Amino acid sequence: MKQLLLSIAIASAATVAYAQGKQVTVINHSAFERTAEPITISIDESKDIKSATVSHNGMVIPCQLDDIDGNGVYDQLFFVTSLGKKQKKVFNVTLSRQESESASTQKVYAQMMLTNKKIKSSNKQDLYINSLSVDNGTNPYWMLHHHGPAFENEFVAYRIYFDERQTVDIYGKYKKGLELRETQFYPDSMQKANGFGDDILWVGKTFGLGAMRGWANEQPQMLQDVEKRTLSIVAAGPLRTIVKVEDRGWNPYYPKNCKNNERITMTTLYTLSTDRRDCKVDITLKGNTEGLRLSTGLVNVKDSKEFTDSKGLRGCWGTDWPVSAKDSVGHKRETVGLGICLDNKNVVEEKPADKDNYTYVVSPQSDTVSYYITFASDNETYTPSYHSATEFFNYLKQWKKTVTEKVSIEIKDFYM
After folding, report:
1. What DSSP element (H or E) covers 375?
2. Which residues contact 351 (CB under 8 A, 6 or more apart)?
3. CA distance 3 to 84
């Protein structure tokens, strides 16, 4: 009996003390410097990791563990780094089954909430949620404060509309900092006077900034016929925030009807990392996608100038009211630059601009589509900022290099 108890005690101690080490080598093969380069490492869920430490040259740097699939177990480790031209950096990672508190500064923020009708103020709402699902035909757009999840870093903020549009809308800032906790996307007059940002883009039924939609009858089609639509905040810091949109049982051939076995599930992850103005969009499709065509692009801002490299990079720069005429009191015309960068292998056709959109027709490859969206506001006073079409389009050209010329990540495991 004593031997059995001793064996159990040794096994328990081993479980508690378990730690796995990883040596992570990151190499920048490009002839330009990188700042805030996102590094993501997959974690074996069977190890049931509870905490992590990342260090470089003996200095501990901030990191983040995330549960992307929502099963209660961490499956990704995330951190950011800067890299010089052609530079290589080696990081030591320790993964542990023991929980530990992190003192990392919050660099991102995300919120999603129901509208509390008892509270009249637009920036004092208090019914916070992190996920909501609705059945086909239910539209919670007006029940949700700022109409869906909103998320930010110190440079920029985004929101996703919770309706058939699923539009990406934007919030521009004058100065660096996290603001949404205080403004809730709707700053009051005092906050505006103190230099807080605001909604800077009218989107209507357009793509806004890179929403993915269907394609039929030579027109973009909103996601009208979806058996269950779910929007969730998957990760909320300290270094990145991830918002998930799941359209389960979507009829991608709308306005035509489809059979149940023709419906597909489209899952979209919007990832915003610290110290970057761009947002990564990862789309996964389940079901029969043979011959499927989708569409995305940018809203055609009024009288905007257009840029395209005809290889998946497109942008515009223009000025317009950010709200409808009836809501224009307290607002001013906003000058913005919008950009989207698609893998050219996904691009079926780049459509000429029409009165609403700069449109791409796209096709998934291996049931996935990944791309990037970005924007700049002429209001920005921090560095770097862009205040003309020329400046912004030059930024887009360099931005494409940073997101298409990937760093390499080599991982070696060792046990401690």
Report:
1. strand 368-377
2. 297, 357, 358, 359, 360, 361
3. 57
Task: Give the whole-angstrom CA distance, residue 411 versus residue 115.
Answer: 46
State the pLDDT at residue 4: 36
Return mean pLDDT, the chain: 93
Residue 236's φ and ψ, nearest 5 degrees, are -140, 35
Show the CA angle centred on residue 318, arms to residues 312 and 324, nearest 5°: 110
Q: How far is CA 282 from the centre of its chain?
A: 8
List residues bridging with 51 in a β-sheet. Answer: 96
User: 79 forms bridges with which residues in the sheet?
Assistant: 39
The rounded radius of gyration (Å) of the Cα atoms in the chain is 23
pLDDT tens, position by position, 146-183:
999 999 999 999 999 999 999 999 999 999 999 999 99
Q: What was the pLDDT predicted at 347?
A: 98
pLDDT tens, position by position, 192-242? 999 999 999 999 999 999 999 999 999 999 999 999 999 999 999 999 999
Q: At 189, phi and psi to the nearest 5?
A: -60, -35
Largest CA distance in the chain: 83
What element of type H or E holds 39? strand 34-42
Burial class (CB in 10 A: 0-12, 13-18, 19+), 372: buried
CB of 266 within 8 A of CB of 164?
Answer: no
pLDDT tens, position by position, 257-297: 999 999 999 999 999 999 999 999 999 999 999 999 999 99
3-state secondary structure 115-127: CCCCCCCCCCCCE
CA 122, 126, 132, 134 dihedral sign is negative
Q: CA–CA separation, 407 vs 190, rounded Å?
A: 44
CA distance 79 to 155: 18
Check residue 104 and give its pLDDT. 83
What does the alpha-carbon distance between residue 192 and residue 348 come to, in Å, rounded to a whole number?
43
Q: Look up residue 364 and give its two tokens.
A: 């998934």
